[in-house]
């Protein structure tokens, strides 16, 4: 049985990303000190991937306003990310770093590597400023994700992190009532 990745610290990595027209170095150190989303996808120049990345690009400004940086990762190279960015209208609107993971090391660190295919599953991870994974969502290759639902999960993770003793119920939205787990609530919800 696999051990949960929740509340574990991100493992060290070094990679090159395409970001704002340049190649930049990215490591686990870039994820510390702020909230981060690491979004794995199988491959550039494919089908479901651009719909997800475009959706994330549409929500990037909202995430940035929440103090969150987004990193997309595939086992393609940073050169391939640039070529895709330059040729696709959908990918061209991306303003977050697109990390190349051609060795699969980062994908393995997060447990999303499909070894026999050399591709990553669709994995989304929300990481707190201390470098701990607070949300982990992994989909099969044919199932796309929703950035608006991710925004809600980040809001809930940030709320719980700053409100000791409170938890967010299903479908919670900012401003709605939370719960304070106690013996008095057992069997009454």
UniProtKB/TrEMBL annotation:
Compartment annotation: Cytoplasm
Enzyme kind, highest EC tier: oxidoreductase
Molecular functions (GO terms): NADH-dependent peroxiredoxin activity
Key words, A-Z: Antioxidant, Cytoplasm, Disulfide bond, Oxidoreductase, Peroxidase, Redox-active center
Catalytic activity field: a hydroperoxide + NADH + H(+) = an alcohol + NAD(+) + H2O
Residue ranges of domain Thioredoxin in the record: 4-159
Main localisation: cytoplasm
Domain of life of the organism encoding this protein: Bacteria
EC number: 1.11.1.26
Stored Pfam families: 1-cysPrx_C, AhpC-TSA
NCBIfam families: AhpC
Function: Thiol-specific peroxidase that catalyzes the reduction of hydrogen peroxide and organic hydroperoxides to water and alcohols, respectively. Plays a role in cell protection against oxidative stress by detoxifying peroxides.
Description of how the protein assembles with itself and partners: Homodimer; disulfide-linked, upon oxidation. 5 homodimers assemble to form a ring-like decamer.
Protein family according to the UniProt entry: Belongs to the peroxiredoxin family. AhpC/Prx1 subfamily.
This protein's name: Alkyl hydroperoxide reductase C
Species whose genome carries this gene: Shewanella submarina
Highest classification ranks of the organism: Bacteria, Pseudomonadati, Pseudomonadota, Gammaproteobacteria, Alteromonadales
Gene that encodes the chain: ahpC
């Amino acid at each position: 049985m696999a051990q949960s990745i929740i509340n574990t610290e991100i493992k060290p990595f070094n990679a090159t990303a395409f970001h704002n027209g340049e190649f930049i170095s990215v490591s686990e150190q870039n994820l510390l000190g702020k909230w981060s989303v690491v979004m794995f996808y199988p491959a550039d120049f494919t089908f479901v991937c651009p719909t997800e990345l475009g959706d994330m690009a549409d929500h990037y400004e909202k995430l940035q306003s929440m103090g969150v940086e987004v990193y997309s990762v595939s086992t393609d190279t940073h050169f391939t990310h640039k070529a895709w960015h330059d040729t696709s209208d959908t990918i061209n609107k991306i303003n977050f770093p697109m990390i190349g993971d051609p060795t699969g090391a980062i994908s393995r660190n997060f447990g999303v590597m499909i070894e026999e295919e050399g591709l990553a599953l669709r994995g989304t991870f929300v990481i707190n400023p201390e470098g701990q994974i607070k949300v982990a969502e992994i989909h099969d290759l044919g199932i796309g994700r929703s950035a608006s639902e991710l925004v809600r999960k980040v809001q809930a993770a940030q709320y719980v992190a700053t409100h000791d003793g409170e938890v967010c119920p299903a479908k919670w939205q900012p401003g709605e009532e939370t719960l304070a787990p106690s013996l008095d609530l057992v069997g009454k919800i």
